[in-house]
Specification:
- Chains A, B: Belongs to the class-II aminoacyl-tRNA synthetase family. ProS type 1 subfamily.
- The structure is a homodimer of 547-residue chains.
- The first copy, chain A, has 13 helices and 31 strands.
- Chain A is an alpha+beta fold and 547 residues long.
- In chain A, helix 2 packs antiparallel against helix 6.
- The longest helix of chain A has 21 residues.
- In chain A, 45% of the residues are buried.
Chain lengths: 547, 547
């Protein structure tokens, strides 16, 4: 395509409010434009990349036997009432009323809609398993949209749903999807980790998140430095490492006031409320309490910290649940400041002095801890969540009465899995991994154009003629070529070319009359003079060396 | 694809509320499902067809040099305020408020958004012309959604926009689009007419609608029986046919009451209000007044009929505008009942007795009238509007201050064109033209699968083995094949096959052991026995004969 005819509004200046490299460079390269907070247009260059990502996704999803369909963005509120999510989802769910006063959600996710679509059809075990997917615009009214496409309010998502009559069938689909996701992200050129993630206490069982590694990532991944182990920070199990005998206890001492502590190990108490219970959890003061682990141990979907209230954990009310982190099992001399009494306890032996009902793994893992699989040491990395596979189980089918008849003619709820990929997020993640200060350096599989043909001075007849000839030649060879035929200063052209980031640059300049051009990879600074007779093989050799 | 694994919820019964063939058959064939009034899901079969239509559109749009982009569905209200359309558009515009209380429109059309996107970039005549398009879900809160996808509230549309610095440049783009549209609809197999349409008095100039011929169509097309002439009913000009001398007048007579009329030609008066004027239009009582023509003659964007008021047209107030249809120019003896006076006028000579300020073409054309191009006689047909090309001019660029600098450095508003295709409507229109009572008969270019391979009894080992072998063979030959491998009764299978409507059926039945299959075109009743050695050539011969 001729650049003079294209809509590529590059920006010289760094946009002030763009906090991440992907946000900044997608704007500067003319790939996207913001229309409102968290709402973007994909301009021709950006949309070319989106379509390439979508093609990769389609090929791999079709390969699993999944069928593409397209559900509407407007979802009747009645469906969300069936599962109770109309009330639970909160302000992130965009809602609107039609001219007749009927309420709709703008699809943030599609479980209700797909379950309503299949529940009449999937009435027999003979029709199972079944797998469907869609690539669709989704809506979530994020409180603080940021990082451009990374946390937007309108975004493109691939969501897939599978339906089964057994846990084994779901398991097979789950791992088929898992491996398809690996292929998708590999084909996009991404460095990523598939990490264990939290499925919540109610609903699913297994779930993995696919995290693209990037400093800007909002999630922390705990991974082993010497094995494949990776988990979301909140999911990483802490090994009980201290197998040594507990030391001797000393008599409990109580001193009024908040005393300085030395010798004893300081512990802290964290209070929570669930729908039914009040809970206190003791952990070492240097450790960080992990709400997700507390929630999972309590087998509840909701816990709220009680921050401003400070009941007495030493002499608790009768019905308070008292938990402690595993670490306390091995401690005989701890210290604790009890705010209620304004007193500090010394030589507190948790087992002896606290009415602990259960020890469990309730803290966040730390860098330097042993890896939970026993191999290596835990390190942290930041990740951008680009996909998730999830065993839903029967949460939605039960709520929405989506049943099939099994071989014995008995009605059972469909067993479901759901699987998401953030398409626009994937674009951002690729940006975070493939750029330098001057702009994008696209991997071959996603580059909007493979070759950027740059005519240094198009007013020069020889340069223009040679460029025109090479443009046709490269197109005939099957390359996707962007020809900068614009009458702009060379400085502008080269700056734009770096922003746009095509993998290979073919530069037609002063030596056009001698049939010599310059060839460069976008990621290198070096340009190599090449005669046009050797250009074809030089380009294919160069492409071989690139991601 | 194996039918046993596909989501094709066919329906035996005719859905009660489906008024049109396309609506009924898209539901019955398992192509779509309704989620709410005017809101549908495209199931795997239906979405395969949608994607084929989109591919044709993309190829032809790219061929015009237009660039694909994707704008968001959520459009900030501020943009619609700039053009005043937030207030003018009415209840068809879906609106919502985000969590911060900011208003958005769900895109019904994209003029505001695209103008806001390009206005900073297209700052020089050097960057013009430019052409962009998108294929996107659109929203319109139709009061009475009907006919399935034909008048839905959420639908897929291709909208394109071009930007120019001269009327000639716009004209070229307009006709390029016009011809691209012709190719698109031809490739979809549609019988259609490109018809002159109303552009409204303000805004654009030229506009054509593309109407697919179908009895269910909501628009009436007036076309010549012996030329290419075609126009929307309201746009078809009426020729002044009566060139004969006016007959002699007789003295005006006034008789009280509403008298029977014979001899004289009865005329009627129609009253309208514009933003500034009151207007009365006289036409022959047997003719139908054409509001659009009245509006265009008055060069206004709004007229309202005054139905309940009956001012005196014979003795009108001083500032009333008095118009008459061309037909009255040639009449000397007409009769008129004046309600205000409750009196009938006889021998009324319009020229002599009415203070007519202007004669013009103000009535609807009728079947049997001469064609406006002078060739042939006008006939009527019903059409489904599937596309429109429109010269917008500077309506949006002026309102939104989208200007470019011309060669003299003078700021001028961008000249715009816009061009739409209803993608889901096109699917419906194809259905209306390609079906019989039993289901769809898809044209080859859009068929979800070219070949339906039907195993009559998959429990029979010979039938199943041969089917499996033929399935692989046909796939290897590059055909898109749906294999009905389901353990269903033959009657169910053949009924489903007719509903699904693949162009070619390959039936593996009792003669499987003899390596004989049956071949049929979906549109014929006849099945032909073919040996499997001759199958390949028989299929390609058969396909040659089909649309």
């Amino acid at each position: 395509m001729k650049q003079s005819q294209m809509f590529i509004p590059t920006m010289k200046e760094k946009p002030a409010d763009a906090e991440s490299a992907s946000h900044r460079l997608l704007l500067r390269g003319g790939f996207i434009r913001q229309n409102a907070a968290g709402i973007y247009s994909y301009l021709p260059l950006g949309y070319k990349i989106i379509k390439k990502i979508e093609t990769i996704i389609r090929e791999e999803m079709d390969g699993t036997g999944s069928q593409e369909l397209l559900m509407p963005a407007m979802q009747p509120a009645e469906l969300w009432h069936e599962t109770g999510r109309w009330d639970v989802y909160g302000p992130e769910l965009m809602r609107l009323k039609d001219r007749h006063g009927r309420y709709f959600a703008l699809g943030a996710t599609g479980e209700e809609l797909i379950t309503s679509l299949v529940r009449d059809f999937l009435n027999s075990y003979k029709k199972l398993p079944m797998s469907v997917y869609q690539i669709q615009t989704k809506f979530r009214d994020e409180k603080r949209p940021r990082f451009g496409l990374l946390r937007g309010r309108e975004f493109i998502m691939k969501d897939a749903y599978t339906f089964h009559d057994s846990a084994e069938s779901l398991d097979k689909a789950y791992w088929d999807m898992y491996h398809a996701y690996c292929r998708i992200f590999e084909r996009c050129g991404l460095k990523y980790r598939a990490v264990l993630a939290d499925s919540g206490a109610i609903g699913g069982k297994d779930t993995h998140e696919f995290q693209a590694l990037a400093d800007i990532g909002e999630d922390t991944i705990a991974y082993s430095d010497s094995s494949d182990y990776a988990a979301n920070l909140e999911m990483a199990a802490v090994l009980e490492t201290d197998g040594s005998e507990k030391g001797d206890s000393l008599p409990l001492e109580k001193v009024s006031g908040n005393q300085e502590i030395s010798g004893d190990i300081k512990i802290a108490a964290h209070w929570f409320k669930t729908r039914t219970d009040t809970v206190v959890v003791f952990i070492k003061a240097e450790d960080e309490i992990n709400d997700v682990k507390v929630k999972n141990v309590l087998n509840t979907d909701l816990i709220e910290p009680l921050e401003d209230v400070n009941p007495d954990p030493i002499n608790p009310e009768k019905d308070v649940l008292i938990f402690a982190d595993n670490a306390l099992k091995h401690l005989s001399r701890t210290a604790f400041y009890n705010k209620t009494e304004d007193a500090t306890y010394f030589h507190l032996d948790p087992d002896r002095d606290l009415s602990i009902q259960q020890y469990d793994d309730l803290r966040f893992i730390k860098e330097g801890d042993l890896s939970p699989d026993g191999q290596g040491i835990i390190k942290f990395a930041r990740g951008i969540e680009i996909g998730q596979v999830f065993k839903l189980g029967t949460k939605y089918s039960e709520a929405m009465n989506a049943t099939y008849l099994d071989a014995d003619g008995k009605a059972k709820p469909l067993i479901m899995g759901c699987y998401g990929i953030g398409v626009s997020r994937t674009l951002s993640a690729v940006c975070e991994q493939y750029h330098d200060d001057n702009g994008m350096i696209w991997p071959k599989s996603l580059a909007p154009f493979t070759i950027h043909l740059i005519t240094v001075n198009p007013k020069n007849e020889e340069q223009f003629k040679l460029s025109d000839q090479l443009y046709q030649q490269l197109l005939n060879q099957g390359y996707d070529v962007l020809w900068d035929d614009r009458r702009e200063r060379p400085g502008v052209k080269f700056a734009d070319s770096e922003l746009i980031g095509c993998p290979v640059q073919v530069i037609v300049g002063k030596k056009a009359a001698e049939n010599i051009i310059e060839l460069a990879a976008r990621r290198e600074k070096e340009r190599v003079e090449t005669s046009i007779s050797e250009m074809a093989s030089a380009i294919s050799d160069l492409l071989e060396t690139l991601d």
